[in-house]
Design a protein that fits this description.
CATH topology of the largest domain: Umud Fragment, subunit A
CATH superfamily of the largest domain: Umud Fragment, subunit A
Order of helices and strands: HHHHHHEEEEEEEEE
Distance between the termini: 44 Å
Radius of gyration: 26 Å
Helix content: 25-40%
Strand content: 15-25%
Structural class: alpha+beta
Strand order of the largest sheet: 2-1-3-4-9-5-6-7-8
CATH architecture of the largest domain: Ribbon
Number of domains: 2
Number of strands: 9
Largest sheet: 9 strands, mixed
Length: 234
């Protein structure tokens, strides 16, 4: 390897603020039975870890781009990126993987196709009937990887007040949560009605706003009475 293995392990260990004894203890928990003296020998170059030990060392020290760190030959899509840049690429890859949208359907679960049944509520049919999620009338809908795993339920959009982003008859998937931030689009119950709107929550008061500016805002005169059901999953 171009980069001295022992020096590199030592450098990454110190970045983690680990002593050789603490590092050996972490290795022991992962099934690598070594002492701090063994770690010292690796770092001095007196001995080398075997293949299994090496991979566990990299995992503990968060060395992701092994080829780039030890051999100065990073994968093509990582060429030219700093350590921080490579980290961000892998963070994005983790986010894509966790979304479930791009799982290979030919693989067995958990990375293959996941079939779930989620309730889908018709907003038009829910007018004046109270809190949406308490209603018995919903459509059980089987979904797969096309719907993010964080989705808890869906709604059928009624009308064109949220055009051009959301369309009449469209099913929108919602992650259930009790609090939204200013500017978030979500589902709310207020005075017996359920709304799919953008939250405007500023010093001047709370409003539910349509995307189409031709529709007036819904002024929330009693902030304690509004119930937040969830946030749209983009």
């Amino acid at each position: 390897m171009v980069n001295n293995l022992g020096d590199t392990i030592c450098s990454f260990r110190k970045k983690k603020d680990l002593s050789q004894r603490e590092f050996a203890a972490l290795l022991d928990k992962r099934g690598v039975k070594v002492t701090n003296q063994a770690v010292s020998k690796w770092e001095s170059g007196a001995s080398l870890p075997n293949a299994v030990q090496f991979l566990i060392i990299c995992d503990i020290l968060d060395i992701i781009d092994i080829s780039g760190i030890f051999n100065n030959r990073s994968y093509d899509f990582l060429d030219g990126l700093s350590e921080e840049g490579r980290k961000r690429v892998y963070e994005y890859a983790d986010m894509v993987r966790d979304s479930g949208l791009y799982d290979d359907p030919n693989l067995p679960p958990p990375r293959g196709t996941k079939i779930r049944t989620l309730p889908v509520y018709d907003l038009d049919a829910a007018i004046g009937k109270g809190r949406l999620l308490d209603l018995p009338d919903y459509i059980p809908t089987k979904v797969g990887n096309e719907v993010p795993l964080s989705a808890n339920f869906g709604i059928i959009i009624s009308g064109d007040s949220m055009e051009p982003d959301y369309h009449n008859g469209q099913v929108v998937w919602i992650q259930q949560q009790a609090k939204l931030e200013h500017g978030d689009v979500g589902v709310f119950t207020y005075e017996g009605n359920t709304y799919f709107k953008r939250l405007r929550d500023r010093v001047g008061g709370t409003r539910l706003q349509s995307i189409d500016s031709n529709y007036p805002d819904i002024i929330i005169t009693d902030p304690e009475a509004i119930i937040t059901l969830g946030k749209v999953i983009e």
